Amino acid sequence: MAKFLVQKSGPLNGEVVISGAKNAVLPLMAATILSDEECRISDVPQLRDVDVMKDILKSLGGEIKAENDGVLAVNMKKIEKCEADYDLVSRMRASFLIMGSLLGRCGRAKVYMPGGCTIGARPIDLHLKGFEALGAEIIVKDNFIEAISPEGGLKGESIYLDFPSVGATENIMAAAVLANGTTYIENAAEEPEIVDLANFLNKMGARIKGAGTDTIKIEGVERVHGASHTVIPDRIEAGTYMLAGAITRGTLLLKNMVPDHVKPITAKLRESGVTVELTDEGLYVDASGDRKLTAVDLKTLPYPGFPTDIQSPFMSFLTTVEGSSTVIETVFENRLMHVAELNRMGANIMTEGNKAVVQGCKNLEGAQVIATDLRAGAALVLAGLVASGTTEISEIYHIERGYEKFTEKFRAIGANIMRVEE
Fold first, then answer.
1. Residue 123, Cβ neighbours under 10 Å: how many?
2. For the segment 116-150, what is each residue's pLDDT rounded down to a tens digit?
3. SS (H, E, C) the chain
4. Average pLDDT over residues 60-85
5. pLDDT of 309-350, one tens digit each?
6. Predicted TM-score of the model (pTM)
7. How many Å apart are CA 237 and CA 29, to the nearest integer?
8. Is 117 a catalytic residue?
9. Pairing of strands 108-112, 144-148
10. Residue among 32, 24, 29 nearest 177 (CA)
11. Rounded-to-integer distance, Cα 12 and Cα 315, Å
12. Beta strand pairing status for 38-42 and 228-230?
């Protein structure tokens, strides 16, 4: 098993080029199932989750070719089966995103219960509710779910989501592309990744309007064709490096990112006293000098609110500023598991239910800690950059699921981080 060794690094300085978004590329890859022609996706990050999705598409009969410069050519002309292998699905939560595309194209989809980070229940009932509204028969067993289209195919319908689930919005949208009639998704998720998927599907010949708002309209079409598309930059990776600059009191320039996608993070960093400015070159984050950085409160919400994926890295930053901060997690019920690990490093964080109170200005100390999930792992790396001694982080496969060239990028801006095999 591999682990990270992180030591106090001083201010991080330099430039970081943000990679394509993990949370965008996975639904894009799943959507290629809808077409029997080749699709080309650019700026595909080299991640474990991307590799799992490649293997899933191959297991269905697809041909996948990774080209230079992050280009992925996907040809799903021959779909040999409408069932994903259990051992692949169990490794990644986003594998469930193939269900909508399989149901739309093949009229049938069978997917085993997905795996992934243990940050909460993340129920799939909203996905199934949407498929049922389109006319599918849902069969739920102990370890798998099967959806079967009615004779004549899926039919457009108005679907109201009880919660603006990103995954459910993506899955229902994909299923509705080839349905008969018009589908409306109300209380839809508004994340940039939803817009990116809709743009890709429209390039393939779909008719989707309203992505990025709370109501999405999908007019069904008879077929879609191949298309080329570039993945949006990863706003969560961008937020992580913004916080890396802030927590180490450094100066970083972030390139290849969309400033509007990180507005909530920018607002909270500015409120704390960090300079965040948009320049012609990119987003400039400056926490250097003798400035006094102070506590801020935050509450995670669906987009455009503060992203749950940045909650744990931001909490690491809050341990280093003056004052007491309150952090409220409203999206996932188990997303405070990193608190115990940060406290092991000397932080003073008290939790009650979905609320954490962070007492800042603590001198963190290196310790043996565990990356309990993807973003918690990033939070521990940030804490390790300012902690005395050595921080040893295990279970780093979580981190490598979501951050491309993690150690390489951090070392390039001055971080003292090493990946070692036990």
1. 11
2. 444 344 468 899 999 999 999 999 887 788 999 99
3. CEEEEEECCCCCEEEEECCECHHHHHHHHHHHHHCCCEEEEECCCCCHHHHHHHHHHHHHCCEEEEEHHHEEEEECCCCCCCECCHHHHCCCHHHHHHHHHHHHHHCEEEEECCCCCCCCCCCCHHHHHHHHHCCCEEEECCCEEEEECCCCCCECCEEECCCCCHHHHHHHHHHHCCCECEEEEECCCCCHHHHHHHHHHHHCCCEEECECECEEEEECCCCCCCCEEECCECHHHHHHHHHHHHHCCCEEEEECCCHHHHHHHHHHHHHHCCEEEECCCCEEEECCCCCCCECCCEEECCCCCECHHHHHHHHHHHCCCECEEEEECCCCCCCCCHHHHHHHCCCEEEEECCEEEEECCCCCECCEEECCCHHHHHHHHHHHHHCECEEEEECCHHHHCCCCCHHHHHHHCCCEEEEEEC
4. 93
5. 999 999 999 999 999 999 999 987 777 999 999 999 999 999
6. 0.95
7. 20
8. yes
9. antiparallel
10. 32
11. 18
12. parallel
Tokens of 218: 């999908």
Name residue, tokens 């999405």: 216
Catalytic residue among 39, 82, 106, 117: 117
Alpha-carbon distance of 259 to 273, in angstroms, equals 18
Q: What are phi and psi of 141, to 5 degrees?
A: -115, 180
- The encoded tokens of residue 396 equal 């780093």
Two tokens at 162?
A: 């009880």
Interatomic CA distance for residues 46 and 312, integer angstroms: 23
Burial class from Cβ neighbours inside 10 Å (0-12, 13-18, 19+) for residue 422 reads exposed
User: Could you tell me if 20 and 258 are in contact, meaning their C-beta atoms sit under 8 angstroms apart?
Assistant: no
In Å, how far are 239, 246, 315, 362 from 321, measured between CA atoms? 18, 10, 10, 8
